[in-house]
Amino acid sequence: MKDVDVVSAQSPAELPPTGHVLVAPDKFKGSLTASEAARHLTAGLRRARPAIPVVELPIADGGDGTADAAVAAGWRRVSVEVTGPTGRPVTAALAVAGDTALVELAEASGLRLLPEGRLQPLTATSTGTGQLLGHAVRLGARRIVLGLGGSACTDGGAGMIQGLGGRLLDAMGNDLPPGGAALRGLHALDLRGLPDLSGIEVIVAGDVDNPLLGRTGATAVYGPQKGAGREEQRVLEAGLRRWADLAEAASRRPARDLPGAGAAGGVGFAALAFLGARFEPGINFLLDLLGFSARARGARLIITGEGSLDTQTLRGKAPVGVARAGARAGVPVVAVAGRRGLTGEQLRRARIQAAYALTDIEPDVERCMRQAGPLLEQLTVAIADEWLPPHQPGREVP
User: Fold this and answer.
1) Fewer CB atoms near the end CB (10 Å): N or C, the chain?
2) 284 CB contacts (<8 Å, ≥6 apart)?
3) How far apart are CA 92 and CA 95, in angstroms?
4) InterPro entries under this entry (predicted)?
């Protein structure tokens, strides 16, 4: 294996002679799910240090892979057919543990569900997310966690309300077609079909705090990544403004300027306005939900990571959340990534003690994408040499 260029925030701490390694990566977008990344890291560690126990906990921050992370942590997967972002049926999953249900928007309304990746900024809908929420209610959930991220739509969550049983009507009393553009013709709301959510706690878990409208809102900031050009952004912004006016009048909750209202194309707004939801930073809340603290207890090392470790990571992404939680537990945290763009000082402030990148051992970025799994396994050799001296025996995790 080639020499690995490791960016360290500080020298490795004196590690305890016993304890397991907790492997807690997020997805490597376009290459590996969080569960796949965890499996490859574990395989490499078991070859390099077979005596040291490894505990896997794939993680997510509310976006793609959140339901899978919950299932990997022991939750039950429930699959149901819903309306996808283009109106076609898709099979989506939610995760259930006791009376808590975790609904991932990307499962029903995500960019990855667009046929052949063709963006549909004006017509993509969040209807399927509402249908997933309705299914959680029918399952008897008393707490619903709605993970936001990876959305294909900019409809302010209007589709979600339709999916839950609400009606959006034009001036002739006809149901509006799906998508954010149609909201310009919204005339009235009929909410009599919505389920009774009294007694159900709804929590929105996301990693953005944008308002619904304006220069930092859903359309201006996230519209372009969903295919909206300048004219389309004007159309969507006008639709969202009309939606906000009528939605706030109907719900009597002024939610457009609340942190997180602009999340997932404005789905955060509808959750705050109509579902009585509260907004929680995605990674911190989900780490608690997935039982991170219990799995970190007694660990000698935590390995986290994601596809690109860069300045976006510092804005509350999963690796930083893991690193801070590890610091609270007194366990050193190192990160792996496809590419690394953070300095040692930035890593130190994020509580990450060292970072390892696939591009350190394979400069070809396309090959890194194609061969991310085997390369991650190779990278664990450098991590083991630096952080897991072979003379320190392991023990079984209690």
Assistant:
1) C
2) 321, 325
3) 10
4) Glyc_kinase_flavodox-like_fold, Glycerate_kinase, Glycerate_kinase_RE-like, Glycerate_kinase_sf
Burial 7-46 (b: 16+ CB within 10 A, else e): bbbeeeeeeeeebbbbbbbbbbbebbbbbbbbbbbbbbbb
What is the C-alpha separation between 224 and 263, in angstroms, rounded? 14
* CATH at 41: 3.40.50.10350
Pair of tokens at residue 83: 């309306």
Does any domain span residue 288? Answer: no
Does residue 362 sit within a domain? yes
Both 173 and 255 in a single domain? yes
Instruction: Quote the tokens at residue 101.
Output: 């249900």
Residue 32's contacts (CB-CB under 8 Å, 6 or more residues apart) are 40, 372, 373, 376
Question: Number of structural domains, the chain?
Answer: 2
Domain limits at 104? Answer: 66-283
Same domain? For 49 and 110 the reply is no
Q: Are residues 89 and 221 in the same domain?
A: yes
Question: Any residues with CB less than 8 A from the CB of 95 and at least 6 apart, and which?
Answer: 67, 70, 71, 75, 76, 77, 78, 101, 102, 104
Task: Walk along the chain (398 residues) and give the pLDDT tens digit of each residue.
Answer: 455 655 655 444 444 445 999 999 999 988 999 999 999 999 999 999 999 999 999 998 888 889 999 999 999 999 999 999 999 999 999 999 999 999 999 999 999 999 988 999 999 999 999 999 999 999 999 999 999 989 999 999 999 999 999 999 999 999 999 999 999 999 999 999 999 999 999 999 987 889 999 999 999 999 999 999 999 999 999 999 999 999 999 999 999 999 999 999 999 999 999 999 999 877 888 899 899 999 999 999 999 999 988 887 877 788 999 999 999 999 999 999 999 888 889 999 999 999 999 999 988 889 989 999 999 999 999 999 999 987 644 443 33
Whether 392 is covered by a domain: the verdict is no
C-beta of residue 133 within 8 angstroms of C-beta of residue 145: no
Q: What is the CATH number of the domain that holds 90?
A: 3.90.1510.10
- Does 290 fall in a domain? no
Supply φ then ψ for residue 175, to 5 degrees. -70, 135
- For residues 167 and 189, the answer to whether their CB atoms sit within 8 Å is yes
